[in-house]
Amino acid sequence: MKRTLRLVIVAGARPNFMKVAPIVHQVRMRSRHARPALEYCLVHTGQHYDEMMSAVFFDELGIPQPDVNLGVGSGSHAVQTARVMEAFETVCESERPDWVVVVGDVNSTMACTLVCAKLGIKVAHVEAGLRSFDRGMPEEINRIVTDSLADLLLTPSSDGDENLRREGIPATRIKCVGNVMIDALRANLPKARSSSILERLGLQEKSFSYVTLHRPSNVDHAPELGGVIQALSKVAASIPVVFAMHPRTTQRCQQFGIALNGHPGLRIINPLGYHDSLRLTESAAFILTDSGGLQEESTYFRTPCLTLRPNTERPITITIGSNRLTTLERLPADVEQALRHKTGLGEIPPLWDGNSAGRILDSLLEAA
Ligand code: UD1
Question: Hey, which residues are catalytic here?
Fold first, then answer.
């Protein structure tokens, strides 16, 4: 057995940081006592770079500064993927890790996995096996490529295991470790609960809706985005709506000349930090989103969630949790129903218990 296991842990975009934080903390806790001993290098690809899309999460989650920042920035899918690959290859050559740990389904996840596959470096994919079965979503392509190349597939729920087995991946490479994002949520609950965001926005518990929408299918075309704002304006007539707007959505509104003022009750704010977002998720009467993370976080809080998408790669948030798919046409009826429930909807899925990072490390040490 090797004396030291060298890990490179990769984060690139906003939803990655909450997944990487518990893993980094677990590695640091075990680094001296584990056999083999653990060493890690944290790589930020720079896919997200704004203060409120990146640095705020490092601060709030207590993630140490990345050892390397590839600084790739924004670009088309091909440009962004290629930039990550080129820069990450150099890191792999100098670090020579035993394992690279990638999380989620963003372009950085796929790009780094592809580099490792060609260099013969083993990859562990955290959040493996999720499928929306919709290849129109860039993330679905990233998931399929990453899972087909990774050596260790660490799933958040048993549907992930089933998807992977169906794709012919041997059971020996699959391990259900639970949802690592819930580790971050549980560890940050006290801080989230002391956030002053409700007071700052003048909101009352369970008397507002928290909205985030940024998927290309909802925001990249003028008619769809115009329809979304109109629909939110109608919802806001019955309950205050707080829309924390992703930079992609803000840019599209500007580009399409969509007015964001003149909708009473609809409040557009900048993207939120982690603690403020958790506080709103726990306190909202309902969530309206197209984010994977919010579908999961609202399930944990048992807050009703309406997902403005035709599908989800996280079906367990519907079968067990508090989530429901919606469309702009069905939104008024779904809002009415969500308002009747307000809280206590659904259950928390198995292994969403705050101990996933421990199981991830156990799996890596076992596979070493
Ligand atoms: C990416 C992920 C998506 C994830 C989302 C969460 C892919 C394919 N998509 O989408 O899965 O749900 O992150 O946020 O990896 N921008 C800024 N500041 C930033 C980052 C981006 O202003 O810090 C702007 C840029 O103009 C960019 C646009 O937002 O063109 C979109 O960013 P990009 O990383 O391409 O995709 P996201 O929509 O953020």
Answer: 214
Which residue puts its alpha carbon closest to atom 33 of ligand 1? Answer: 74
Whether 31 has a pLDDT exceeding 90, the answer reads no
8-state DSSP, 191: H
Q: What is the mean pLDDT of residues 274-279?
A: 98
Residues of the chain with CATH 3.40.50.2000: 4-178+352-367, 194-339
Instruction: Answer whether 235's CB lies under 8 Å from 241's CB.
Output: yes
Of ligand 1's atoms, which has the minimum distance to the CA of residue 105? 11
Architecture of domain 194-339: 3-Layer(aba) Sandwich (3.40)
Class of domain 4-178+352-367: alpha beta
- Distance in angstroms (rounded) separating the CA atoms of residues 85 and 74: 14
Q: Give residues (CB < 6 A) around ligand 1.
A: 13-15, 47-50, 53, 74, 106-107, 138-139, 214, 246-248, 251
CA distance 183 to 353: 7
pTM of the model: 0.96
* Shortest-distance atom of ligand 1 to CA 106: 15
**Integer Rg of the chain from CA:** 20
Token code pair at residue 89: 């290859």
Q: Is 13 helix (H, G, I), strand (E, B) or coil?
A: coil
